[in-house]
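A protein record pairs a chain with a discrete description of its three-dimensional fold. The shape at a given residue is found from the number at the same position. Here is what such a record looks like in full:
>
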Amino acid sequence: MRMITRKALDRRTMLRGLGAAVALPMLDAMSPAMAAVKAAPRRVAWFYVPNGIDMRNWVMPDDGPLGKLPPILSPLEPLKNDVLLLSNLTANWGRPLLVGAGDHGRALAAYMTGSFVHQSVNNLKLGVSADQIIAGVVGKETRLPSLEIGLEETRQAGNCDNGYSCAYAYNMAWKTPSQPLPPVSDPRGLFERLFGADVFSSPEERARRLAMRRSILDTVLESAQTVQRDLGAVDRRKLDEYLTSVRQVEQQVQKAEKDGTVITPGMEKPFGVPAEFGDYFGLMTDMLLIAFQADVTRVSTVMIGREGSNRPYPEIGIPDSHHPITHHQMNPVLLDKISAINTYHVKLFAGFLQKLKEHREGDSNLLDNSMIVYGSGLSDGDQHLHDELPTILAGRGGNFFTPGRHVIYQRETPITNLFATMAQRMGVNATHIGDSTGQLAELSLS
């Protein structure tokens, strides 16, 4: 039973001293006496794994309640009542129907967009990704509309080693058909994006920096609007996209200025990328956890690796580059290595889910109030198959989904149907996302 208090504590109450101001966490006393408890916000995230999966050790033959999990999914055993295993979903536009981009580039770029419009050999474009469709609505409620995280160096120009476009192989989130949102891969950069470079500064210093940022943004907007009058239609469109991004930054600055609060991350500012991948994953997802807790954002994408990733995993005894061994040609030694990498990734993901579950929110927890997808745009990495994709949906989306089950759909069901279902649960009335044909049934038994 919730205690009824006579007075309500202001949500903006700060602890002040020694020239610093620290925001309090959400407390029961911050709700007015006798008022109903506000429902916790829902969050959504996608974790993308590159280069496909050893599907022999992923697939479960029967639908229904989850029994003993297959080897790759075994780290989720303690959490199997919190996840749905979804089979037979397809990313049709990842297939080699078009010229250009390469299988790996299409696998990642088409995964969230459900589209790939071919105009000419060197001019491919996508739709808007599912996360950005959702962020366009719910992102207005948070300081960051969305958060893009990558666990591998990003590149924005030129070609990758295998000749396909880096724009596709390195970017998961697409704000417009020509505007990817590059993931943040540097831990310090992610920390500063979430909490600000001046998180430990005095209020006076933060005020000076905010004023300087506003001045810079005002100058940029004024100059760009002057230039825009002399441009052609195509250039005006490109510049308008740029101005839209600048205005969004301006709005974030104004929101931070208005709130006047400081989020205490509860961790030191990181420096550099940890040597072991597990530590790197833990550091980046810990910051995502804090962002969800503090309601800095409700929408995120996490690229565990870029498509075609050549990362080695010596910490689990695999010094080989990831991508080459996925072209195993049924070599049992290589298959075992792939399976070990896949299991390692799931183990790290399970650790993140456990942390979400341990964070209480009223009568529930952060995991129950979230929808977290784990999957890939490739199933078999050797043959570059884009159907029967490995897909997990974790969480209940605010007591909506019924996890603990395996659901087998009809072959060729678009994976974007899952994303459209998630968008609807986030309060976004998306008529379609890419090639979606409707919403997924049987995710809830109620």
About this structure: The two ends are 26 Å apart (CA to CA). The longest helix spans residues 233-259. The mean pLDDT is 80.
